[in-house]
Amino acid sequence: MKKFVLSAVAASSLVACTSVESAVVSGTEIASNGEAVAVVQANALGLTAIFHIVDIVQSDLDTVINKLLIAEAKAMGASKVELLTAGTTPRHGIYALTGTIIGVTSSGAVGVAVK
Q1: Which end of the chain has the smaller Cβ count within 10 Å, N or C?
Q2: Cα(50)–Cα(29) distance, integer angstroms
Q3: Half-sphere exposure of 66 toward its Cβ, with a 13 Å CA cutoff?
Q4: In this predicted model, what pLDDT tens digit does every residue of 34-46 receive, in sequence order?
Q5: How would you write the chain as a 3-class SS string?
Q6: Domains in the chain, number
């Protein structure tokens, strides 16, 4: 049983869990600084070890905003993103205690893709 659990943890550490959702909107229906193309939401789950010191699978604001949110907006024909909200799991200070041996982190961002 221990080998199965260890194998499952090792296998899951090799796969990043990300999700990007988008909804096309009318530029006249959404208030933004430019012509709105879509609303985009990006989320990522990560794994860390030893009190969040070692990243096994990376999940931070840089990954969610630059690699997921902005990439999806540009693929939809937008020139920039108006960021509405962003958040990540705290990893320093007292929050490091939640990462003990293996910790799960989460990051997310929502923005409006604008032409």
Answers
A1: N
A2: 47
A3: 5
A4: 899 999 999 999 9
A5: CHHHHHHHHHHHHCCCEEEEEEEECCCCCCCCCCCEEEEEEEEEEEEEECCCCEEEECCCHHHHHHHHHHHHHHHCCCCEEEEEEEEECCCCHHHHHHHCCEEEEEEEEEEEEEC
A6: 1
Establish if 109 belongs to a structural domain. yes
Q: Is residue 8 part of a domain?
A: no
Residue 93 CB partners (closer than 8 Å, separation 6+): none
Question: Model confidence over 78-97: pLDDT tens digits?
Answer: 999 999 999 999 988 888 88
Q: What is d(CA 20, CA 63) in angstroms, rounded to the nearest whole number? A: 12
Domain extent, residue 27, equals: 19-114
- Report pTM: 0.80
User: What is the C-alpha to C-alpha distance for residues 65 and 49, in angstroms, rounded to an integer?
Assistant: 23
The total number of residues shown for the chain amounts to: 115
